[in-house]
Amino acid sequence: MALPTSVVSAKPASHAAGLLVFLVREGEKLIPVDGVLDGLFSRCAKEEEFTGKEGQMLSLHTHGKIGAERIAAIGIGKERDADRTLDQLRTAASRAVKLAKSAGAKSLAIVVPAADAAQVQSLAEGASLGAYVFDRYKKEKKPLKLSRVELLLEAKPPRALPDAARLGCEIADAVCAARDLVNEPPRNVTPRALAAEARKMAQQAGLKCEVLGRAQIEKLGMNLFLGVAQGSAEEPQLVRISYRPARANGKALALVGKAITFDSGGLSLKTAQGMEDMKTDMAGAAAVIAAMRLVAALEPPFPVHGYFGACENLPSGTAYKPGDVIVGKNGTSVEVLNTDAEGRLVLADVLAWAVEDKPAALVDLATLTGAILVALGPWTAGLFSNDEQLASELLACARRAGEPLWRMPLPAEMEELIKSPVADLKNTGGRFGGSINAALFLQHFVGKVPWAHLDIAGPASIDKDRGYNSRGGTGAGVRLLAEWIRRRAEATPPARAAAKKR
Ligand code: BES
Ligand code: MN
Ligand code: ZN
């Protein structure tokens, strides 16, 4: 659950709070804290060389001299651009929450630097994201004393600000739900359990959810998906979550997520170390489920569908084998050379299925390749797209959402690397350009639909706490998708009322 976060109009110096936080830009005068505690705070700041550098923090007990029990200044670094500012605020708000937590404060008040809706939304996001812990399986849980966050403004806040704080909380809630799904052990997040989570979310949000089992997947001809699933005793599940406005304006958007609930590599078995994190191989689907929940809240005027095909990739006597040739849903035959390149096989069939719904645009999210980490490092997702407009939209949304994203090429001349001597395609393309090969492979299954593939193998999880992300699942892609849906909704006029019959 998100930390309840509200916008409050009050004078910081007299406002009662467990912890009162000022955000300070690097190099700027300490105006916000001047005069607080009769100038004592700014004197301390000078003595301790607090300059507002990103991550710098100064905190003091007030001994009851002002409304707050404790005050702190948190550096947010130098000003760069509006999008970067928002991410500085997310980070600072999460730091403020962590400080409040370690000080045992029951309430936190953050002085808002500007009466700006996007900034308020980011502060709300950062606060709740920073409060996230995954301690379900710990005997010793540290209950959060902090029960609320107030965003302080001296002037009366314009109407848009409380709405922005609410949206920030909803987004953070959805991101944390995705994190939970990724962090939950694979013995619990089986394909059936993941489908059940989607159904539960859909029910709560008022969305439709269809869940198809093995027999129905067979009927649909999704043999690539079934091939990956056949080594496991768990039944594969094909899921479609649908949002439909009462009166729709325009074609649907489609979101597709990779949902391998555990990736051992199959018969092309991974090393023990290579498997340690492979419960996170359903992070794409977790992002789609979370994003669909936000779609229900954002109520765009067009339909949105979320799709995933969930299964495990395991070696066994029934497992698919290197050398197998399998014909997928859209009639393309694939030679399986490496059973560890399973994600593209499942996605191929699910993409082909999603395309049958004729979406205006399709975005898939997948922890698809280790190679994207080699190319872009641990925190940046790769973007592949057949559509310039869609690609630039997503890059802009990613910057706004604070989710590093970098465009990668889809060079036609590399197609020869995934040609097979015995089938239409093979599922690996050799050692070089591994993420590009995978994306080129997927492109064979989307037809002419404007499509973007986000390889989130890097940012989907991290190995230690970092800013407002904590160790484990990050919920990568959720904020980006929410921003994309929001912008598309804003750019689409509501459907005209049906013409009255004469
Ligand atoms: N799920 C993995 C990709 C992955 C690796 C995600 C590391 C997160 C961290 C994917 O199914 C996979 O195994 N890809 C192979 C492809 C190869 C066999 C062509 C890889 O990246 O090694
Ligand atoms: Mn794999
Ligand atoms: Zn995988």
What this model shows, in words?
The chain is of the alpha/beta class and 502 residues long. It has two domains: 5-172, Leucine Aminopeptidase, subunit E, domain 1; 184-491, Zn peptidases (Aminopeptidase), CATH 3.40.630. Helices cover 34% and strands 20% of the residues. It is built from 14 helices and 19 strands. The protein has helices spanning 40-47, 82-103, 117-130, 160-183, 191-205, 214-219, 223-229, 272-275, 283-298, 343-355, 371-376, 388-401, 434-443, 478-491, and strands at residues 5-9, 19-25, 57-61, 70-77, 107-111, 148-153, 208-212, 237-243, 253-263, 304-313, 325-327, 333-335, 361-366, 381-385, 405-407, 425-426, 451-455, 461-462, 472-473. The strands form four sheets. An eight-stranded mixed sheet has the order 7-8-10-9-13-17-14-15, with helices on both faces. A six-stranded mixed sheet has the order 1-6-5-2-4-3, sandwiched between helices. A three-stranded mixed sheet has the order 11-12-16, covered by helices on one side. A hairpin with an 8-residue loop joins strand 3 (57-61) and strand 4 (70-77). Helix 5 (191-205) runs parallel beside helix 9. The longest helix has 24 residues, at 160-183. The chain is elongated. The relative contact order is 0.12. The model has no long low-confidence stretch (mean pLDDT 96). The site of manganese (II) ion has 4 residues, from loops.
